[in-house]
Specification:
36% of the residues lie in helices and 22% in strands. It is of the alpha+beta class. The chain folds into two domains: 125 residues, no CATH class; 66 residues, no CATH class. The chain has a six-stranded antiparallel beta sheet with strand order 1-2-4-3-5-8, sandwiched between helices. The radius of gyration is 32 Å and the shape is rod-shaped.
Length: 255
């Protein structure tokens, strides 16, 4: 930096002039620092506002398959499994989607969903049935109750009755099971959340992704953490709403 000197003044006089200027500059420093901090905060606020605006721009929602209104999964050999989320969807599953050749499953606990393996006319393998049983157990009240295991049974469609016997009472949305049941005992209550290229999927078998188990983490926080892990593992942009839809009811944890 060049220093200008007044030739009409001696060295001490020129020094005194610059000393006074430096004192004025120092007095202005606190105000300058405040102005800088104020500007930084304004820029941060504007950045957050722009980010919020960007988030408010509606994303193009993907087209959903018919079964995504239920809890759903695919078995290793490709059978679709659907489970109800409430009384209404339990009723829809039994009255509309349970067909001859399918299998109906239910956990041995109050508040379990009606679960169906959709056969599409193909023989259902024991492997598929076992996976569906684990799925039915995990999406029952066993999960929010924090149980480590649960029993589940499977029956044929003609054993599921929507009307009570004479003299018996059947609550709204309830069903009666008649005849022998095939039992699956002490099934683990857990699922693996993975990514199929367009959406998160809950599997009842070990898969690349995140293992979700009963726990005390609120569902919203759990979904956010699972999203973070899936995005990191699969380099994807997972929708939290999709995760909220496919996770079991109640709080949970990550194994």
């Amino acid at each position: 930096m060049d220093i200008e000197l007044d030739l009409d003044k001696n060295a001490f006089e020129n020094a005194a002039v610059y000393y006074q200027k430096s004192k004025k500059a120092k007095r202005k420093l606190p105000g300058l620092r405040q102005a800088i901090e104020k500007t930084k905060k304004s820029l941060e606020k504007e950045s957050l506002r722009l980010e919020a605006e960007k988030q408010r721009v509606p994303k193009k929602r993907r087209e959903r398959d018919w079964y995504e209104k239920f809890h759903w999964t695919y078995t290793t050999d490709g059978f679709l499994v659907i489970a109800g989320k409430d009384v209404k969807t339990n009723t829809i599953i039994v009255r509309k989607h349970l067909q001859s050749g399918d299998k109906y499953l239910h956990a041995d606990i109050h508040g379990a969903p009606s679960t169906v393996v959709v056969s599409e006319g193909k023989p259902i393998s024991e492997e598929a049935l076992a996976e569906a049983a684990r799925f039915a157990g995990t999406f029952s009240r066993a999960f929010p109750k924090g149980l480590a295991s649960i029993d589940v049974y499977a029956v044929n469609p003609d054993q599921v009755k929507t009307a009570a016997k004479a003299g018996e009472f059947l609550p709204k949305g309830g069903f009666q099971i008649r005849g022998e049941r095939e039992w699956f005992r002490k099934l683990p209550v857990k699922i693996w959340v993975s990514w199929d290229g367009k959406r998160p999927v809950a599997f009842a078998r070990e898969e690349k992704g995140v293992c979700v188990v009963p726990g005390d983490m609120p569902k919203g926080e759990l979904a956010a953490r699972v999203k973070h892990k899936l995005d990191s593992i699969f380099k994807c942009e997972c929708d939290v709403n999709d995760l909220m839809s496919i996770l079991p009811p109640g709080s949970g944890g990550i194994e």
